[in-house]
Design a protein that fits this description.
Elements: H1 2-10, H2 19-49, H3 54-75, H4 79-84, H5 86-135, H6 139-166, H7 170-199, H8 204-230, H9 257-274, H10 278-294, H11 296-299, H12 306-330, H13 333-338, H14 343-376, H15 379-392, H16 396-423, H17 427-456, H18 461-492, H19 515-539, H20 548-567, H21 576-601, H22 608-617, H23 619-632, H24 638-674
Helix pairs in contact: 1-2, 1-5, 2-3, 3-5, 5-6, 5-8, 6-7, 6-19, 7-8, 7-17, 7-18, 7-19, 8-17, 9-10, 9-14, 10-12, 12-14, 14-16, 14-18, 15-16, 15-17, 15-18, 16-17, 17-18, 19-20, 19-24, 20-21, 20-24, 21-22, 21-23, 21-24, 22-24, 23-24
């Protein structure tokens, strides 16, 4: 529509000499009016559903409709009249176009207000269910409360995902993405930490472990609110307050080294124009001090080796000297007289910029060296395994000793994130570096608390499960950090973005989902994960954990959870073929579970519980058949493979949901049978 309006306004600059051109303009005018009519129809439907903006929205729609009709009328003229009144016609067309654009802008702003309102309402609902979840004291009440919380989270994931796509800047979209990621990962940790606390309330560590997850979840919810209402200019706590480029939780605005170097280089280039006037020279000196201040995170770091530290200090000193040389060259009277930089000044500018490039390269090498060093040894796996083993053996002292080493390792990882942020090079990577630093800082004490809880309750399956969840969360953060290092290294080497992986018509080998595909399927994956959480909570009700129904249902829940991890690019399933193979086993297990529960139902006396069980049970074969049917469908090409992945996850979610309901019905029937 905007292109068509531009065409109508611009055509008046050239005289129209044929009826053919006139008819073409008439068609454009009609098309504009039709598009406006469709647009305002949507706006009016939004007004009907939202009383608080109804009047303003209806007025804006009326204004847009009037302008659209005016534009069509102005194009419906004969050739003679148009030639006689060309100037007046153009003025009227410009006025109508401005009126239309103004009205459309008003409609869009009002519609955006509705979207934000919906998001905040979804966030408030999650906050309410979270508050209720924190107060429950019984296991049955907790299962119900968590189920409601999960449903509310799915709704929030949907509307916040839509809002993320609407945000204008890459930085704002990344901020929303990492905050939504915090909420998603917190869901499983909330489940297991709360279950552990309910089972072992006498252990202080279990309470601290659970409370920390609630705090983290609330901070993420508040950040969602602020991002929705203020875009990138927010003040939350998803990222550490000491950092300054992400816009999240900014107590002070310390720039990254990469940004400081870029600003300094720009001022050096500008000196060709300013010829180092007193004000521009003062700006250069101030910019240099800011730049050197950002390098102190590198030189002050205990993990920076001596040679790298010395090189950074020497390069900073070289930069000071080059700027001093530039200052002397800029004060040369010849430059002032000619109005252009002298050869001496031009040479000094080039030398200063070369010193900048050398310093930037050294900072990049230092940050990537630290990252490489920390990834060389498999420290995370060893420490997590040692803490878990000590907890299972009730070796409290050993857990404490290993926790100290784990905390030291976490500090080193946080230091790596801080330096990576300085050399990230793009706003998106800066936000991710800050996010990972924050997550490492929050997750470290929670992980050690989970292990300490296990050491006091070494025979507890719930406490062990809780440790596994926090260990997996830590492993996920380390995986994200390794991806960040790869991305930053690519940027440093001049690659704009990482290569995407996907199937093509010429290549049928197993592939991974691209980041874009993972984003598309994220909501579906989250829904399935929440169902597995509900399923696990239902299974915990059974007194006999070795019951055949419970054992098989838990096994299927684990399989579904692995498939969820695949949608995030994590977990044991690495390729689409791995996913399809897992889904085949999942469908087979569903058929076996159906037969076992069918036999069990024959032992249940007639009545409403048995009738409900059979109603739920009859759905299992249908969902198993649908999943098998999807798996057998052939694929060729990237789009077809992704569609198959999407369908498999959807079918798995449906089957898992049915199994969760069947297990609940079985528990009710088992209670009746035992009584």
């Amino acid at each position: 529509t905007f292109t068509q309006i531009t065409t109508l306004v611009n055509h008046r600059d050239k005289p129209i000499k044929s009826e053919k051109t006139l008819r073409a303009l008439l068609r454009v005018g009609q098309a504009v009016n039709l598009a406006v009519e469709r647009f305002v129809t949507v706006g009016e439907s939004i007004a009907e559903e939202n009383h608080d903006i109804r009047r303003d929205m209806c007025d804006a729609c009326k204004e847009a409709r009037t302008a659209g009709a005016t534009i069509q009328r102005l194009t419906d003229v004969n050739l003679e009249d148009l030639q006689l009144h060309a100037a007046a016609e153009k003025t009227a067309m410009v006025r109508a176009a401005r009126q239309l654009l103004s009205a459309i802008t008003k409609v869009l702003i009002l519609a955006d207000r509705v979207v934000v309102k919906e998001l905040i309402a979804a966030k408030d609902k999650v906050t309410s269910s979270l508050n209720h979840l924190e107060t429950v004291t019984g296991f049955t009440d907790f299962v119900k409360a968590f189920s409601q919380f999960g449903n509310d989270m799915v709704k929030l994931a949907h509307v916040s995902g839509d809002r993320q796509n609407d945000l204008k800047s890459d930085k704002a979209r990344t901020q929303m993405a990492v905050t939504r990621s915090v909420l998603e990962k917190s869901t499983m940790m909330l489940l297991t930490s709360s279950k552990t606390y309910l089972r072992h309330p006498e252990t202080d560590f279990s309470r601290h472990n659970r409370d920390a997850v609630f705090v983290q979840t609330r901070k993420a919810l508040e950040t969602i609110h602020q991002l929705a209402t203020e875009g990138a200019n927010v003040s939350g706590d998803v990222s550490p307050s000491v950092n300054g480029d992400s816009g999240i939780s900014l107590a002070q605005h310390q720039p990254s080294a990469s940004r400081a170097i870029k600003e300094f280089e720009d001022l050096v280039d500008m000196s060709r124009v300013t010829l180092l006037s007193p004000s521009s020279e003062a700006k250069l000196l101030g910019s240099l001090e800011t730049l050197i201040e950002t390098t102190q995170d590198f030189t002050d770091s205990a993990y920076t080796n001596h040679s790298n530290r010395e090189r950074i200090i020497l390069l900073c000193e070289r930069l000071r000297q080059e700027l001093a040389t530039l200052g002397r060259a800029g004060h040369n009277p010849n430059s002032k007289e000619t109005g252009s930089p002298s050869q001496e000044m031009e040479s000094a500018i080039l030398q200063t910029k070369e010193a900048c490039r050398a310093l930037r390269k050294q900072l990049q090498d230092t940050a990537l060296d630290q990252a490489s060093e920390v990834f060389k040894s498999n420290v995370d796996h060893c420490l997590l395994g040692a803490m878990k083993t000590a907890g299972l053996n009730a070796e409290k002292e050993r857990v404490n000793e290993t926790s100290v080493k784990f905390e030291e390792h976490s500090e080193q990882l946080q230091e790596v994130c801080k330096l990576l942020r300085h050399v990230a090079g793009t706003e998106t990577l800066v936000v991710i570096a800050e996010h990972l630093e924050s997550q490492l800082k929050c997750l470290c004490p929670s992980t050690t608390q989970a292990c300490r809880t296990l050491s006091f309750n070494s025979m507890s399956k719930i406490a062990k499960e809780n440790v596994d969840v926090f260990n997996d969360a830590w492993a996920g953060i380390i995986n994200e950090l390794s991806v960040l290092v790869k991305d930053i290294n690519d940027v440093c080497q001049g690659k704009s973005e990482r290569q995407k992986h996907g199937t093509t018509a010429k290549s049928l080998r197993p592939v991974k989902l691209s980041a874009e595909e993972q984003a598309k399927i994220a909501k579906l994956g989250l829904e399935m994960k929440l169902i597995t959480s509900e399923m696990d909570a239902e299974a915990e009700k059974w007194e006999d954990p070795h019951n055949e129904i419970v054992r098989r249902a838990k096994n299927m829940s684990s399989m579904a959870f692995a498939m969820y991890l695949f949608t995030r690019g994590e977990g044991p399933l690495k390729t689409t073929q791995d996913l399809f193979t897992q889904a085949e086993y999942f469908a087979e297990e569903g058929v076996k579970l159906f037969k076992i529960i069918k036999d069990f139902s024959s032992q249940v006396p007639n009545g409403i519980p048995r009738s409900d069980l059979l109603t739920c049970l009859d759905k299992l074969p249908v969902f198993c058949h649908q999943l098998n049917f999807t798996l057998k469908s052939p694929t060729m090409g990237k789009a077809a493979t992704f569609n198959k992945v999407d369908s498999v996850i959807q079918d798995t979610k449906n089957l898992m949901n049915a199994i969760s309901k069947v297990v609940t019905a079985c528990f009710i029937c088992a209670t009746k049978v035992s009584s």
